[in-house]
Amino acid sequence: MSNSNAAAVFTTADLAEAIRAVRTLLGIADVRHGEVDFEGVIRSSDVLAHVRHVLPDLEWWALADKECGSSEAGGDPADCLPIRVFDWGRPLDRAEPFIAALGPDPAAVRWDLDGWPAVPEAGLEEVSQKYAYLTLSVNSRDLYQDELSQDHTVHVHVRRDDQAARIQWLADQVGGRFTGRVEMAPL
Q1: CA-based angle 145:151:155, to the nearest 5?
Q2: What are the DSSP E strand ranges found in the chain?
Q3: How far, rounded to the nearest angstrom, does the alpha carbon of residue 94 sit from its chain's CA centroid?
Q4: H helix or E strand, kind and range, residue 71
Q5: Please, are residues 132 and 157 in contact by the beta-carbon 8 Å criterion?
Q6: Composition of the chain by helix, strand, coil, percent to 5
Q7: Whether the Cβ atoms of residue 138 and residue 15 lie closer than 8 Å to each other
Q8: Hey, which residues does 69 pair with through a beta bridge?
Q9: 13, 87, 116, 117: which has the fewest C-beta neighbours closer than 10 Å?
Q10: Which pTM was predicted?
Q11: What is each CA distance from 91 to 18, 46, 153, in whole angstroms?
Q12: CB-count exposure of residue 129 (10 Å: 0-12, 13-18, 19+)
């Protein structure tokens, strides 16, 4: 398994603004074969019902009581709250309905892109799919829902070494700024 660095480029308390920033970045990226992955923590039966409406086959497991169950072991996730949920490789159009279903619960939505384009005027070469990801942390500032927050953070993923110029250029496109905050992200 390889890793990338996920650099925080935009943080806001306004979810609509965070989604606007994501849409802007998706408009820059090559998304022809893009997919979206979901990960989150669901605490209420109302949020669970909304999320299952959007992603009926999501994987889950109980957080507090490992004996309670998981999607693999069967059982009703509503009886096991809070639960951690996962869903992978979905069409891009599932992202915004999932985000809308979350309410106050934290999640990370990761877009797997086909690439970032070359930007000759900024000295940036094209970046292949291997390092072209975008993550929105909803109600959390980090990728793993460990740092709960009432704001939302957009992260761009880059190679571990030489992409500071790409990070800053992408941040500039959404009116954000690279704060220096970077998390290691498995791919």
Answers
A1: 65
A2: 3-12, 35-42, 59-62, 83-90, 107-112, 115-116, 127-128, 133-138, 152-158, 182-186
A3: 12
A4: none
A5: yes
A6: 30, 35, 35
A7: yes
A8: none
A9: 13
A10: 0.92
A11: 20, 24, 22
A12: middle
Phi, psi at residue 8, to the nearest 5°?
-70, 125
Q: Which amino acid is at 33?
A: H
Across 13-49, b (16+ Cβ under 10 Å) vs e yields eebebbbbbbebbbebbbbeebbbbbbbbbbeeebbe
Residue at token pair 């619960």: 105
Only one residue has tokens 């306004």, namely 14
Q: Which two tokens stand for residue 124?
A: 């940036």
Task: Tokens 């820059």: give the residue.
Answer: 28
Mean pLDDT on 109-115: 94
Tokens representing residue 75 in the block: 């059982």
Chain segment 14-46, per-residue pLDDT in tens: 999 999 999 999 999 999 999 999 999 999 999
Q: Which residue carries 């606007």 as its tokens?
A: 20
Per the document, the length of the chain is 187
Q: Please, which pLDDT band fits residue 94 given cuts at 50, 70 and 90? A: very high
Q: Name residues whose C-beta falls within 8 Å of residue 39's C-beta, 6 or more positions apart in sequence.
A: 84, 85, 86, 107, 108, 110, 144, 145
Residue 82: both structure tokens together: 């809070």
pLDDT tens-digit readout, 118-166: 999 999 888 877 778 999 999 998 898 888 999 999 999 876 655 788 8
Contacts (Cβ under 8 Å, ≥6 apart) of 177 = 9, 168, 171
Match 């999607």 to its residue by tokens.
Answer: 71
Look up residue 168 and give its amino acid: Q
